[in-house]
Write a structure and sequence with these properties.
elongated; 373 residues; alpha/beta; 15 helices
């Protein structure tokens, strides 16, 4: 008897991040749909998760950007396509996508891409390099913002673009499942007194994620604690600490590092902030906070324009503007708790309606079935 078709996802590595988590979630959906999920990458901690959901991992140096490395990876992927009867190869990052495109043509597989980022074009030839993500027979755009960008920048016809927003698992991000004792313990660990307000910015420490914007805003918000949850470069972390000291914030800025129990951290905050100064393709932390019924204030650009309905499921502010962020935080923190809770409840309802992992999985499997048919 012939084997079910294999669907191969390719990405640089399986360390952490939204692309990597999405890869595991789609591998799970592929297995549930009766296909064979394969993931190729340079490896990482999430390889075990691929196995847990029923997938197979192939270790290849797909984290290289060198032309020779891309060419060699194309040959390795072609061999994998032929050995495993791969029907579809799904590329999630640019350098591996060039290898995957060549391999799909050589091995006779269908080619799908997910356009995960806005991808800057600051260097000569960058648009050509980025264009591979628009060359899929189906191009999955993770937001309307990205769908419009793909069509405008690359001339990709709408018939090839599929809008599939990122999703969150409401079972993992469930406010009712987080014990109050854990929330209280975390607030105490962050140095908050009873009733003291906490603002959380969950993102890796990198300048464009806007941590410095929040630090500047905190100087205008007496008594409010700011928590930065995310790992990153030590140099930028020290710069944030130095600026906080210069502003006299004392212990009101907490660099919490990577937080494993993000659901608890979100519940421990009174308001969650997204402060990116560049356009996010989607902004997954926004819907994670909303799934936990937390009020969100987000930068008014990119994907959050679609997930944050102004005054309904959250609030939006001009990016890179500490005064505007401070003003919005002041207004939201001054609201009666019941009013903030109502906004959080509306946000969770919107996530359950439009932005679940299950919906993302079902739509992606639909793309595969369309091609296989």
């Amino acid at each position: 008897m012939s084997r079910p078709p294999a669907i191969l996802q390719v990405l640089p590595a399986l360390v952490s991040g939204g692309v990597e988590r999405g890869t595991v979630e789609i591998a799970e959906a592929i297995a549930a749909a009766g296909y064979r999920p394969i993931v190729a990458s340079a490896g990482g901690p999430l390889v075990a998760e691929v196995a847990r959901v029923g997938g197979v991992h192939a270790t290849l140096p797909l984290d290289t950007k060198s032309p020779l490395g891309i060419w060699r990876n194309a040959a390795a992927l072609t061999a994998l396509i032929r050995a495993e009867d791969v029907a579809i190869i799904h590329a999630r990052s640019r350098a591996p996508a060039w290898s995957a495109l060549l391999a799909a043509r050589r091995g006779g597989a269908r080619f799908v891409t997910t356009y995960h980022g806005a991808y800057n074009e600051g260097f000569p030839g960058k648009r050509l390099y980025n264009s591979v993500m628009a060359r899929g027979e189906r191009v999955i755009a993770i937001s309307r913002f990205i769908a419009d960008l793909v069509a405008e920048r690359h001339g990709t016809p709408p018939s090839r673009i599929r809008l599939i927003p990122r999703g969150v698992d409401p079972r993992r991000f469930d406010p009712a499942a987080v014990p109050a004792a854990r929330v209280l313990a975390l607030r105490e660990a962050w140095g908050a007194a009873p009733g003291q307000k906490i603002v959380l910015l969950p993102a890796r420490l990198t300048r464009w994620k806007g941590q410095m914007v929040l630090v500047e805003a905190l100087a205008r918000l007496p008594g409010v604690i700011g928590v930065l949850a995310g790992g990153g470069g030590e140099a930028f972390a020290q710069e944030l600490k130095d600026r906080a000291a210069a502003l006299g914030l004392g212990q009101r800025l907490v660099l919490a590092g990577h937080v494993d129990a993000l659901d608890v951290a979100l519940r421990a905050a009174d308001v969650v902030v997204h402060a990116s100064t560049d356009a996010e393709a989607f902004g997954r932390t926004v819907i994670e906070a909303q799934a936990m019924a937390r009020p969100v204030i987000a930068s008014d650009l990119g994907g959050p324009r679609e997930t944050v309905a102004e005054g309904v499921t959250g609030w939006r502010v001009p990016p890179g503007d500490p005064a505007a962020l401070a003003d919005a935080l002041s207004r939201v923190l001054a609201m009666p708790e019941a009013e903030r809770d109502a906004a959080g409840a509306r946000a969770r309802d919107a996530v359950l309606r439009d932005y679940t992992t299950a919906a993302m999985q079902a739509a992606t499997i639909g793309v595969y079935r369309d091609l296989l048919a």
